[in-house]
Amino acid sequence: MIPARQPGGMRVVRLDLWIDPAFDACIEREPTLSLEVLPVRDEAITAAGLAGAHAYHVSAAKDEVPARWQVSESLLARCPELLCVSSGGAGYDTVDVAACTRAGVAVVNQAGANAASVAEMTFALLLSLVKRLRESQAALVAGSAATREALMGREIEGRVLGIVGIGEIGRRVARVAAGFGLRVIAYDPLLPPEEIRARGAEPVSFPQLLEQAEVVSLHCPLNDDTRGMIGAEAFAMMRPGALFISTARGGIHDEQALLSALQEGRLAGAGLDVWSQEPPQPGHGLLLRSDVVATYHTGGVTHEGRRKVAHGSASQIMEMLAGRRPPRLLNPEVWPTFLERLGRRQR
Known about the structure:
- With 347 residues, the chain is an alpha/beta fold.
- It folds into two domains: 10-109 and 303-346, NAD(P)-binding Rossmann-like Domain (Rossmann fold, 3-Layer(aba) Sandwich); 114-294, Rossmann fold.
- The chain is 37% helix and 15% strand.
- It has helices at 22-29, 43-51, 73-77, 97-103, 115-130, 133-142, 168-180, 193-198, 206-212, 232-237, 255-263, 303-321, 335-346; strands spanning 10-15, 33-38, 55-58, 84-87, 106-108, 160-164, 183-187, 202-203, 215-218, 242-246, 267-272, 292-294.
- The strands form two sheets. Strands 8-7-6-9-10-11-12 form a seven-stranded parallel β-sheet, with helices on both faces.
- Helix 1 packs parallel to helix 12.
- It starts with 9 loop residues before the first strand and ends with a helix.
């Protein structure tokens, strides 16, 4: 059901994909806003709804949102009233931020809202690998006569954890790692060394991280600088027997290169929550290996994390449409133009 538009009000739209009810509840409590839920599969209704929208909440997962409803230059051209876009996650793969900036559209993400959930998943993957949980359960299910020693795991205390990208999630991972007795190093080209130290890690270069870390964990965004950054060359630089973890985005690491590194015995295992194609095909080589722990990109998908993301997205939309700068603005250079466009709409 699409609620009737409030005369003279600002129109907020989202697709009829699942979202925590906190989003709708927040928007509907604001008397100056009206909310429209647009059907993904009805081209005419959704195109018309977006054409008249002032704010658009869009899922951050590119495989959930049909390409025609992702925020591209062509979609922006069809949405002349659009003032702001909110990505429903820390990532923003479904939003062309540069195109939005050119169009005078402000873009926010929800970085940090599900940071606790993703950081916890990082350690769930790591501990599953070193304790060999997948193999142990498989032996139990099969009724195997394996001895406990045949399924012997390892400890992580005293190991070197290398964090690639020590933002909201990365700093939480560093904090938890200290409790496990891990030594933490980090590479983040966007932060000065003193800030990396303040976040609980010793700053190193990217090659140094690959050479020193016994566990490499990705927490950087997917963009032109990071796409494919962990490929055959990077895997070859890692310590023999290292573990590789990614709860970041598919496409940052080369899946075939990772599979080769595991097949050749250069790496001891991998924990993967993200994939180039989500979900991956059932016969994907990485899924067939006992030294890989795989999940369904559910790192940030917890009841608590989804509620925080929904509330944060609604709050930032309300802030922007009230003319107040939001905390997670991805294109700050657009703000003066945004305010000018908002002012024209309100006159």
